[in-house]
Design a protein that fits this description.
The longest helix is centred in the middle third of the chain and has 39 residues. A hairpin with a 2-residue loop joins strand 1 and strand 2. The radius of gyration is 26 Å and the shape is globular. By secondary structure, it is an all-alpha fold. The chain has a domain of about 160 residues. About 80% of the residues lie in helices and about 0% in strands.
Amino acid sequence: MKDNLIQYIKPLVGFSIIVFMGWYFSDVLAYVLIATFLAMMGAPLVKRLNKLKIRKRSIPHMVSAVVSLLLMIFVFSLFMILIVPLIIKQANIISTINVNDLVAYYQEPMDNFDAFLVQYNVINSGETLAIYIQGQILELISLAKFTNFFTNFVSTTGSLFIGAFIVIFLTYFFLADSALLKNFILILSPEKYVEDLSKALHDSKFLLVRYFHGVLVEIIIMMTLETIGLLIMGVPNALLIGFFGGLMNVIPYLGPVIGVAVGSVLAVLSIVSAGEYHMIVFTFFSVVGVFGVANLIDNFVLQPFIYSKSVKAHPVEVFLVIIIGGKLAGIAGMIMAIPTFTIIKVVARQFMQQMKLVKYLTSRM
């Protein structure tokens, strides 16, 4: 009985130590995780390049890793070149809003609404909704004028550049030696657990690669659907709103809500800046409608495949894990919930298969 208890306690103690070290060195762990994610994304390209032959000679593996890394940097830079000007353009649009004209256009309906609020003691006599809205818009405009905030921040602090250098450095070596991180973990493990842990790491990597590739495809599809839909509806700055809305899908469940909220605000502000106040309602519902249709496709077609089939988990499991992740660590917890749960399941299956709960949770794997 005592030996059996120790058999269960040891893995739990080891896992607890790993969790504590991860929390204590959270910044370093973040760099490693980002580099691992990028290496997983680039691994298929490295394999393809390794198979290519130039004058009957294969491309050296190190060269394949360098080319793959440079291609990922190029794609990221291309996104930044496309998106940053759109962000600056949106900020400039917001800064040109004429608040007085907007308030004057809606003065009559707001006066009626103010009378309604005063009648039911929601606001005091003499207070108006227009003053509050005007103050909020002016505050937003003043914030929008600081379009160079990000540039100044980067130029005054080198942390972002240092972080980028560390990630690029680690990503190259993870691409060049795909077993580097795995071997490091196995070196730190007791000899009798090496075989089981090696299998657990292999299975975890296989499932995570499928999951991350699935999420990447989901984001690209959602960006495309939302951007095309917004362009058809004539929504201003559709590319930026579609890009942001699709990107928010990396946050399970909550992401689409954030995307449609921010997208609606950006679209309406663009309409207000142009003085087309009669188009505000149409623009708002156009954004909501496009995002709604796109997310129906996401919920019924993309997510069941990505969140359930790619990590082999029941949808209820996925939902509960995401909720718990959000409770523990907010948005970051929701993003990392499924990958973390996948690793835990694989490790538990390998080391604690005797437990009924583990058998049930891993029965789909």
